[in-house]
Design goal:
Blueprint lengths: L1 E10 L2 E11 L4 E5 L6 H8 L7 E6 L2 E2 L4 H6 L1 E4 L11 H11 L4 H14 L15 H13 L5 E5 L7 H13 L5 E6 L2 H7 L2 E6 L2 E7 H4 L6 E8 L6 H5 L5 E6 L5 E7 L2 H13 L4 E8 L2 H10 L8
Parallel strand pairs: 3-8, 3-9, 6-7, 7-8
Antiparallel strand pairs: 1-2, 1-4, 4-5, 9-10, 11-13, 11-14, 12-13
């Protein structure tokens, strides 16, 4: 449904994206993940036809973005980082205007607006001026304009930026509801957003793709790496010093108190056994000892910043 080949964009001497290659299949929900300045928004602008690449191609539903721009725009709904709304228009009038711009048949427009309003829970404000709405509702209007023409592809660039936790939760729920009805690519630097809404992730850093896989597979990218959650009866000033000589212990992070710790390991069961034995023999009172896999946040930090959550380079 979305096919990107050797996509490159230069701003003068600065290369924002470097020969990107990826594919998003029909019905997929894919997170386009990276730190600020990684090239996410540049890529989204190119694949939606708002910006020309320096080289490479982007195709939507088989149509080249720049050879067949009108065909592409009929099939795509785009929410930029700043919602493209007119604050002096009423919500429903604005959605009608967008539907007409998309070239929808007149007999479909009102039903399509009703659907978009229902999906985004805008019923109570559809007759209000957009300029009088809260930021959360304006974001909903932005999503409504993206889906009003029932496009094959939705491109959402930072859809929850600047929202409060309740508004973020509501937008994520909405994205989950749209699964299966649209092919969705979600550009963000917010990890919980990707984990909550996406099935697959593409991680970009400094304009290059550094990883691409399912969320589950990415979370186990560093084979042989694990973490232990440790809760003790006695407080320990520096658990890292206590475990420093054990082979395979890569770092120790404190939790909410000096009784709770996270121990990062690179090793086998012998390392886990050595940690537990040390804690018991030292008489710290081992209350909880829970192994867990390295999560997506660790992989993201390692791939984009060169270190883990505990600061390991």
């Amino acid at each position: 449904m979305i096919e990107v080949r050797d996509l490159t964009k230069d701003y003068g001497p600065h290369r924002a994206i470097h020969a990107l290659n990826f594919t998003v299949k029909k019905g997929d929900v894919v997170g386009f993940l990276g730190p600020n300045g990684a090239g996410k928004s540049t890529t989204m602008k190119i694949i939606t036809g708002f910006m020309a690449p320096t080289s490479g191609t982007a195709r939507i539903a088989g149509f080249d973005v720049f050879e067949s721009p009108l065909e592409v725009k009929k099939r795509i709904g785009y929410l930029p980082e700043t919602p493209p709304v007119y604050t002096d228009m009423y919500v429903r009038d604005y959605l009608r205007y967008v539907a007409r711009l998309k070239g929808m048949e007149k007999n479909r427009i009102e039903k399509s607006i009703d659907r978009a309003v229902e999906k985004t829970s805008l019923g109570d404000v559809q007759k209000r001026l957009i300029g009088h709405l809260s930021k959360g509702f304006r974001q909903r209007v932005g999503i409504a304009q993206a889906i009003v023409s029932d496009p094959d592809v939705l491109v959402l660039d930072e859809p929850t930026v600047g929202l409060d936790p309740k508004q973020m939760h509501e937008i994520r729920e909405l994205i989950r509801e749209l699964r299966g009805q649209h092919t969705i690519i979600l550009s963000t630097h917010i990890l919980p957003e990707v984990q909550a809404t996406c099935e697959r992730a593409i991680i970009i850093n400094k304009g290059r793709i550094v990883a691409e896989d399912s969320i589950a597979n990415l979370a186990t990218l560093e084979k042989g790496r694990s973490r232990l959650f440790v809760r003790l009866r006695r407080e320990v000033g520096d658990l890292g010093a206590v475990l420093s000589d054990i082979d395979g212990v890569m770092g120790v992070e404190s939790g909410s108190s000096n009784r709770e710790w996270r121990v990062n390991l690179r090793g086998n069961e012998d390392t886990v056994d050595a940690v537990s034995s040390r804690l018991v023999s030292q008489g710290y009172g081992l209350l909880e000892f829970s192994p867990s896999k390295v999560d997506l946040e660790d992989v993201f930090l390692k791939l984009t910043y060169g270190q883990s959550r505990g600061g390991e380079a």
